[in-house]
Design a protein that fits this description.
Blueprint (H helix, E strand, L loop, with lengths): L16 E7 L2 H13 L4 E4 L5 E3 L4 E8 L4 E5 L3 E7 L4 H10 L2 E2 L14 H4 L2 E2 L2 E2 L4 E8 L4 E6 H4 L7 H4 L4 E12 L3 E2 L3 H7 L6 E2 L1 H14 L22 E2 L1 H6 L6 E4 L2 E4 L1 H7 L14 E3 L7 E3 L5 H19 L8 E3 L9
Parallel strand pairs: 1-4, 2-4, 3-20
Antiparallel strand pairs: 5-6, 6-12, 7-12, 8-9, 10-11, 10-12, 13-14, 15-17, 16-17, 18-19
């Protein structure tokens, strides 16, 4: 039976793979990766497939699926330490911690994928990201063939990035340790979330209240996986919010949302896309099976049977329109496998 990447990714695109292996223990995962590296066999690690854009030709190598499970919880009066294996469901973990009253990752509810992907992207939303709570990442260093424990500082977290994203061929995340607050409430500093909760920005809410509010917001944007909703056949936000210098920010219209960032000014990619003439539901061609989500301008949806070429055509057209309109180059958030994003004219 031919296994296709389309069957293992949320965007539902991607051609056949050479071999497919499910690793269910850390030892098996490490052994598989080292063995494939030693013979020079191309390797693709895949978790929930929610951040991959895979080419129509597929992957002529071995796909190793992350099936390593395991959770441990160690409580103290003020904190609980959560150690999660790479193959654990991220949202199941968030649900458990929120219902337990442990604060720190509840605003990251509804994000698809597995725990092992979260430090790679420094996954974040609604004012939280995982770098705020990660204390350690256990990983295989493919360059030394050693399993090492990295501190949060070692991970070199940035906005939607990390050392793992910068060196994707070197690291395999095996296990992640989080430190969460026990009891109490979390500050809500994201305006849209505060509005949904009916509170002022800076006020507090319980982890469960925040989780439910986030899930409502994400469902309204087509950002919670639903097999009956084609808008959710996506990688979520296709582009990151660009960080620009003060000079570029000054050229943008005053109503473009912007936020302070360590390396400049972060501006809204969704606003740039919408004001570059890309409406929700927009397609690069009338007959394309890939379209901007009808619920959120940052998502590209597979309406059914779309090819990788159609998705890339649309993404390139969006990127080009924003570049022409505002002089800002959008950067994609997902990882591309055997394909690439160029820039195409309208």
């Amino acid at each position: 039976m031919t296994i296709r990447l389309a069957d293992h990714t949320t965007l539902r695109i991607g051609g056949p793979v050479g071999d497919y292996v499910l690793a269910t223990t850390e030892a098996q995962l490490v052994e598989q990766v080292i063995a494939l590296d030693q013979v020079g066999r191309p390797l693709l690690l895949i978790g929930g497939g929610s951040n991959l854009v895979c080419g129509d030709e597929g992957f002529d190598g071995t796909v190793v699926a992350l099936g390593v499970r395991g959770l441990t919880f160690t409580a103290s009066p003020d904190f609980v330490e959560v150690v999660a294996a790479c193959g654990e469901s991220w949202d199941n973990l968030v649900a458990h911690t929120a219902l337990s009253g442990w604060a720190g990752i509840e605003a990251l509810s509804g994000i698809p994928g597995l725990v092992g992907a979260t430090p790679i992207q420094n996954v974040g939303a609604y004012g939280q990201d995982v770098s705020h709570t990660i204390t350690q990442v256990r990983a295989l260093d493919r360059s030394s063939l050693l399993v090492v424990d990295l501190t949060a500082a070692d991970c070199a977290f940035t906005y939607r990035g990390s050392v793992f994203k910068e060196q994707p061929e070197r690291w395999v995340v095996l296990e992640v340790t989080f430190r969460l607050m026990v009891g109490g409430e979390s500050d809500v500093r994201y305006a849209q979330l505060a509005e949904e909760l009916g509170i002022e920005v800076g006020a507090t809410a319980t982890p469960s209240q925040i989780r439910e509010a986030v899930l409502r917001l994400r469902r309204a944007k087509g950002m919670v996986l639903d097999p009956d909703d084609p808008d959710t056949s996506s990688v979520g936000s296709f582009f990151t919010n660009p960080i620009v210098g003060d000079a570029v920010a000054a050229t943008l219209p005053t109503d473009c949302p912007r936020y302070p960032a360590p390396a400049g000014v972060k501006v809204s990619a969704a606003w740039l896309i919408e004001h570059a003439g890309v409406t929700r539901g927009w397609r690069a061609r009338a007959d394309s099976r890939a379209a901007i989500s009808s619920k959120h301008s940052l998502a590209i949806a597979n309406l059914g049977g779309a090819s990788a070429a159609e998705v890339l055509e649309l993404a390139s057209a969006v990127k080009h329109r924003v570049q022409v309109a505002f002089g800002v180059e959008l950067e994609p958030e997902p990882r591309f496998i055997n394909c690439e994003l160029g820039r195409s004219p309208d």
